[in-house]
Each structure stands twice: as structure tokens, then as C-alpha cells.
Amino acid sequence: MSPAERLQSLFVAVAALVGLAAGVLLPIEAFVGHLVLPALLVMLAAVFVQMNAAEVGAVRRAKTLVAISLVVNFVVVPALAWALGQGLLGGQPDVRIGLLLLLVTPCTDWYLVFTAIARGHTGIAAALLPVNLILQLLLLPVYVLLLGGQAAMVDVGTLAESVLLVLVVPLVIALLLRWTSARFKGIDWRTRHVVRPAGNLVLPLLYVAVFAMFAWQARTVLDHGSALLTLLPPLLIFFTVVPLLSTLAAKLFRLPAAERVTLVMTTTARNSPIALAIAVAAFPDRPLIAVALVVGPLLELPVLALLSQLIRVRTTAPESERAVPSQ
Q: Where would you find the membrane-spanning parts of this chain (predicted)?
């Protein structure tokens, strides 16, 4: 894990604080408001460029792990997200929708890094990435409409258009870029000149989006600071319950140590960049929803770093289990 990745939570916080200060002190609200969605779309395309869909076949080697992860991510977690929102954020609908968007989107990027640190099975983790992405693409509108209730207040067409814009368009661009670069220049050239540079773009673009979001909505943040703090209890509960539940399930089904690590990471890590992009596109007139989503990574990344040490496989796993598949 690079120093930039280790310090991601700190950099997100700094970007938010600098953006907040800039939004209060400088007349840049109109300008930065137009930066948020483009930065997120380019960032997601850069994330998807690194995705190797050919690895989906690897899930056949770990059917039990895959089945458990799908049940936890797409059945248990949405139910838990709804319960936490209703129980702890019932009087704050925008914050509750922000929590829901964050929790029902499994991670499709940095959980691979923490899986590798904890010596999990990164081959299967990489194979789960496109599966998680496709399922959340299909199910996210369903979760928002069914679990968001009256607080969601968005029609199916608007939500479908937002998902299409935020997920499908960057995904199609990324797949075309991967295919054309490999077709005309070769796989090695694609890895050196497309995949690796795309990986280097993800974090800077995230920081730009966070800066622009807070500069754009500085007044919203100042007026609703106490509401954002109410996200901490449900997030702490989530990041405690889900790892414990996944660990118990792994023991119950007697998963190997490397697969246990993979299960915990893929069910705990959340996809805040995609959730943020969806919030910006689907709820443009309710900025508190998007602002609330930035709180998630500030807590999530330290939790994942701690988990990677607590559940780390203490004996060295075979290289075939640990190596991240080639791009």
C-alpha cells in the first residue's frame, strides 16, 4: 500500500476542510459546482479501466465464499442500513438517504489493497469486483426506492438516468479503452500506458471532487454540521457488526484463512465514490445527501486498516492465492 493510500482519510479530510474554507472566503460556488460530477465520472472511468472482467471465472473456485458475500452484501447489509437509518436517523431524511447510498454499495476498488495487506485471496477478491459492480448497478435503484421511503422522493426515471450516467457510461468508456488499447497496442502496452496511469488518477480526482463539493456547499455544511455528526453512531455500528458477522459466517462454513479475510474485506468496504456520484446526479437539489457521503471514508479507511491487521493471515499463503491478477 502506497503512502498516498495509507493517508487517504487524512487527504480526504484536508480536501474537505480546504474546500469549506474556500467556499466561505471566496466567491467560487458557481464555478466549483460544475466540477463535482465531471471529476467523479472521470474518476470512476479510471477505476473501471483497472477492472479485469476476465477474472470473473475465478469465482467458481470459491462458491461458498461468493454465496456468503452476495447474501451479506445484497440482503443483510441493505436490511441493516435500513434499520440503522430508521432507528438512529429517522428525523433527518437527507442524512438517512446518504447513509443508505453509502452502505448498499459494496466497494469495487480499495478493498483489494486491504485484502492483500491482510494476506487474503486477492485473486477471488478481484474476481468479485465486476460481480459486485454489476449487481449494485442493477439493485441500487431498487434499494433507494424500496428502503428510502418518502425520504427518497425521486422518481424511477430520474434514478435510472443517474445510474446510467454515473455507472454505465464510465464503465462502457473504460471497457472500450481496455479493448482498443489491447487490440491495437497489446496487453503490456495497455498495462503500462493505460491501466497504471488510470490508477494514479483515482485519488487526485477524488480529492478534487471532495474539495469542489465542500466549496460548493460550504453553507450547507456549516448549517447542518450537527446533523452530519449523527452519522457516526450508525457507521460505527455497521463497521463493527458486519466484520463480526462475516467472521462468524466464515467459521461456520469453515472457509480457509485467506478466503475468510477476503469475505470480511469485501463485505465491510463500501463504495463511497460511486455513492457520491449517484447522490450528485440523482439529488442535485439536496446537497446534504452528497455531503453526508464524504463522512463515510473518514471512518471507513481507518477501520479497514485496523481490520487488515486484526484478521491478517499469520502464515504465508501460497503465491497463487495472494497475488493480484495481472491486468
A: 31-53, 65-85, 97-117, 124-146, 158-177, 198-216, 228-249, 261-282, 288-307
What is the spatial distance between Cα 235 and Cα 295, in angstroms, rounded to a whole number?
9
Distances (CA, A) of 216 to 97, 277, 288: 20, 15, 11
Calculate the alpha carbon distances from 121 to 52, 126, 267, 309 in Å: 16, 9, 14, 15
**Per-residue pLDDT tens over the stretch 251-284:** 999 999 989 999 999 999 998 777 877 787 778 7
* Complete DSSP assignment for 255-283: --HHHHHHHHHHHH-B-HHHHHHHHHHH-
**Tally of structural domains, the chain:** 1
Q: What CATH number did the domain enclosing 257 receive?
A: 1.20.1530.20
Which residues are CB-neighbours of 227 under 8 A, at least 6 positions away?
A: 92, 94, 95, 288
**Residue 144, SS3 per DSSP:** helix
Q: What is the grid cell recorded at 45?
A: 472511468
Is residue 262 one of the residues assigned to a domain? yes
d(CA 196, CA 193): 6
Residues 55 and 184: their CA atoms lie apart, in Å, by 22
- Domain range for residue 97? 7-30+52-164+213-312
Cα angle value 102/164/12 (rounded, 5°): 35
Q: What are the tens digits of pLDDT across the range 207-264? A: 888 898 788 878 877 877 787 888 899 999 999 999 999 999 999 999 999 899 999 9
Going by C-beta distance under 8 Å and a sequence separation of 6 or more, which residues neighbour residue 183?
Answer: none
Residue range 83-96: mean pLDDT, rounded: 86
Residue 89 DSSP class? S
Which helix (DSSP H) or strand (DSSP E) does residue 235 occupy? Answer: helix 232-252
Contact of 28 with 22, CB cutoff 8 Å? yes
For CA atoms 102, 103, 108, 109, the dihedral sign is positive
